[in-house]
Amino acid sequence: MALIIIDECINCDVCEPECPNSAISMGPKIYQIDPNKCTECVGHFDEPQCVDVCPVGCIPVDMARVETREQLMNKYRALIALNEPSDSGER
Ligand code: SF4
Ligand code: SF4
Asked: Domains plus CATH for the chain?
């Protein structure tokens, strides 16, 4: 499951730099998580880093987005592939 930031967010800014997938950004009122980029930190860390640092505990899993660990790992692999510089053959 992707995680979701709920209304209790106090915009403390600490979670955004901790996300290994750059899934967290400032939204219209509070921070938000791009569910297409959130892997629950699968592939990078054992625990969701944003949850670890959030001082108010406002980042639950999004029950509307059920994903298995395998699906999360596949998302991680796809994101890594996107972020890798393409091999242009330059020498
Ligand atoms: S769980 Fe991990 S990947 Fe998802 S938003 Fe939080 S820090 Fe980013
Ligand atoms: S750590 Fe929690 S309170 Fe702080 S900006 Fe992120 S979601 Fe909001």
From this structure: 16-83 (3.30.70.20)
